[in-house]
Design brief:
single chain, globular, 7-stranded parallel beta sheet, 6-stranded mixed beta sheet, Rossmann fold, Metallo-beta-lactamase, Chain A
């Protein structure tokens, strides 16, 4: 049966069980130890599983060059203490030899913003809260406020309410944070509310967005347009139309803190984005396009550190097309395909 229903009407009931970092739990007879690791997305965990046949480590996605490198170090140390029979080891960037750090991003952004006379515009992965923190710290060091969108404000709200993660990131009401209220579906943001009711204005936004409309640090395009030198403005690739209202003044700059394109589709997308910023006068030459990014995945040197420190009897490369590096660094590497089975 074909239906256009959305949301709760088509929700599929499922059981979700949460775990605590470092607190072992069981799935039937398998004991699982979840350990946090450094990655570009907050909350990522690696796992050590103890089964009746042996012990298995799973690195998930990890790195050492972010803000939580000690978490990755502790995971590797725990692997080394666990007499692993098998390690599932990532290798997304195993063929890379050098990594900038998240602190390099913060420092570079600060230098660029200090030289910017107008609005500083930035783009970065919307769920990368470490990157948000880099721009937040840069904003404080340059006497500006970081303007985030409502999705990021919602993430910060959830983290600020978490018993385990509260304080890791700024609150959505932080004095150096502004929450950008974009135009709603009907565009009532700057309309005369004597003609449209306050209820209609709130109905112009999704339910999860509405509470941010009344936050004391909420701003819209009029605030940004009038005080451009006071802000670092987050503008995702999917909200470039906000620049139509803001109209960046002379002296604006753009800092792109996302993965550089590695295929034709991404190259075409980046060219489209450059066209937008060229249209608004933010980019006039190649030097105006500031690219600074660090990956959520460790480079080859870091992955070798994981392999050596884990001291597993067997190793299976995952998340990679270059298992030749794993084979160079470990004497018993198994390359498996999807749905293959492996005996410990």
């Amino acid at each position: 049966e074909i239906s256009r229903a959305t949301g709760d009407k088509v929700q599929i009931p499922r059981t979700i069980k949460t775990f605590q970092s470092g607190k072992e739990f069981s799935i039937n007879s398998v004991r699982v130890n979840p350990l946090p690791v450094d990655h570009s997305i907050a909350g990522v965990h690696a796992f050590i599983l103890h089964t009746s046949e042996g012990s298995i480590g799973n690195t998930a996605d990890l790195r050492f060059h972010g803000r939580r490198s000690k978490d990755t170090e502790k995971f590797v140390e725990k692997c080394g203490e666990s007499s692993l029979d098998l390690l599932l080891c990532e290798g997304t960037r195993v063929n890379s030899t050098q990594s900038l750090t998240e602190y390099d991003v913060e420092s570079t952004v600060t230098d660029i913003v200090n030289k910017t006379k107008g609005l500083a515009i930035c783009g970065y992965p919307i769920r990368d809260l470490d990157r948000l923190l880099s721009f937040y710290e840069s904003a404080k060091q340059t006497n500006r406020d970081l303007v985030i969108d409502m999705k990021q404000a919602y993430l910060l709200k959830l983290f600020s309410q978490s018993e385990n993660l509260k304080g890791h990131y700024p609150s959505p009401t932080d004095s150096n944070i502004k929450i950008y209220i974009q135009r709603g579906t009907w565009g009532l943001l700057d309309k005369d509310l004597e003609k449209f009711s306050d209820r209609q204005f709130h109905m112009d936004y999704a339910e999860w967005q509405r509470e941010f409309l009344n936050y004391p640090n909420a701003v819209d395009y009029r605030d940004i347009k009038a005080n451009q030198k006071n802000f670092i403005f987050f503008c995702s690739d999917f909200r470039l139309q906000d620049l139509i209202d803001i109209k960046p003044d002379e002296g604006a700059t753009y800092i792109r803190s996302l993965t550089e394109p590695f295929d034709l589709e991404m190259e075409l997308k980046e060219e489209q984005i450059k066209n937008w910023f060229t249209h608004f006068g933010v980019i006039k030459k190649d030097q105006d396009w500031h690219q600074i990014h660090v990956s959520g995945h460790g480079d080859g040197t870091q992955i070798k550190q994981v392999i050596d420190g884990s001291n597993a009897k067997k190793l299976i490369p995952i998340h990679t097309q270059h298992d030749e590096y794993h084979k160079k660094w470990h004497s018993n590497v198994l390359s498996v395909k999807q749905h293959d089975s492996v005996d410990l």
